[in-house]
Amino acid sequence: MSGKYKEALTLADRMQKDIHSIESFMLYADYIFYYSLAITAEFQNLEENLKKYYCKVLQKNQRKMKNWSTVCSENFYHKFILVEAEMARLKGRHSDAILLYDRAIETSRQNGCIHNEAIACELTAKYYSDKGWDRIAQVYMTDAYYLYSRWGAAKKTQLLREQYLELLTAVIEQEKSFDSTEMLKRIFKSDTSGSHEALGNQDIDLVIEAVGGISAEEDPQKAALHYLDTAMVIAGADKGYLILEKDGELFIDAARGANELDTALLPAAVEDCTNIAAAVVRYVARSSEAVVLNDNEDPGIFAGDPYLSRYSPKSVLCLPIMLRGIPAGVLYLENTLVTGVFAPDKLEILKLLSSQMVHVRKLQYLLQEDTAFKKNETSQPLIEPLTKREFQILRLIASGMSNKEIALELKLSNNTVKAHIMNVYQKLGVSRRVQAVNKAKEMKII
């Protein structure tokens, strides 16, 4: 073998002797998928005897992927189809390859697998480029570039710029000419993660401008305050808290408004704060469901909250904050003077604002910074292996489930789920959900 994918294929072959140890994990399916792609990428450079061998490996891998697809098509069908497209390319079945590539892209998109959609677009672009159809290749490579960008794969987009400059010239020229606000508009328009059809262009422009201002902040704490200030202005609140999860507990990381906490004392535990509806905060953090309360309405399950009983705030809004689909904390807002301030349209704008915080690197840093979460430590082995239940819960966290949803899924109590999560944190050496998922992916255990 002498091609550029030789190293990947060699590594996949070496893993064969130990592959039985991960056969019960999702990682095994990923191994099969990428092993097959490594084979198809390097196939033309193989000697004839090796081609026969790897043809058998491909067929064996595809039988497994097809069987998995019948059980859970959402997870496996798009992978199976993409490898089928690559095999059709190698066999010269060009009309089949074209149809299969497009089906792989579409099914990846339908199932929200942005990284596999990006891979499928890239391979399709390479197929058309090799055929000399550069105009079509440019369309697919541009889609791949923006999908990798949305996924956060900065090194991959840089590699595409270096390898396929002729296919991405227009994109690179546009990026040079766009200011930061226009780049944010491109992110918003290409973001299909949420449903904000009810919002007008003016609302979206407002959020774009806000995210641009937050992104300009150099200090993570100032970025957090800027985000909180912006959310308060949009919602019409006169009091607000940005609350983030750490070590299984909730801490106020930024505060504004009436009885504002001394910033020198932040972060402060929610349980130690007497001027916030802690029961509401806990519920939203546990369920990932937004809560709106008005003092002229029945508070329902929150009737016993000491703060609500004592101060009766006119309007309360509590909204979950998600980072790459993983619950990271909550946004708590109040208007202490006016009832019914937090209307549905404002709630949608705030949801859009919060969903775009993934693009603000300083806030990502605030959520991810931890002495136990440095890049050079992610490759260290676990001090103690995860139990089957802990691994199960880690995977559900990575899928974006809240504690309440995990408890319902596994038929456990919330306290039991919380205890398992704390064990996962301890074994991974992290303190937040986002860190746990990132580190698990770095260690290739999910």
Which spans have pLDDT < 50 for at least 5 consecutive residues?
Answer: 177-198, 369-379
Major beta sheet summary? 6 strands, antiparallel
- Overall form: elongated
- For the CA atoms, what is the radius of gyration? 24 Å
Number of strands: 6
The CATH topology annotation of the largest domain reads as: Serine Threonine Protein Phosphatase 5, Tetratricopeptide repeat
- Provide mean pLDDT, rounded: 79
Please report the distance between the alpha carbons of the first and last residues.
Answer: 30 Å
CATH architecture level-2 label of the largest domain? Alpha Horseshoe
Number of helices: 20
Series of H and E elements: HHHHHHHHHHHHEEEHEHEEHHHHHH
| Estimated structural class | alpha+beta
Question: How would you describe this protein?
Answer:
The chain is of the alpha+beta class and 446 residues long. It has 3 domains: 177 residues, Serine Threonine Protein Phosphatase 5, Tetratricopeptide repeat (Alpha Horseshoe); 161 residues, Beta-Lactamase (2-Layer Sandwich), CATH 3.30.450.40; 68 residues, Winged helix-like DNA-binding domain superfamily/Winged helix DNA-binding domain (Arc Repressor Mutant, subunit A), CATH 1.10.10.10. It is built from 20 helices and 6 strands. Helix 2 packs parallel to helix 4, helix 3 runs antiparallel to helix 4 and helix 5 packs antiparallel against helix 6. The radius of gyration is 24 Å and the shape is elongated. A 6-stranded antiparallel β-sheet has the order 3-2-1-6-5-4, sandwiched between helices.
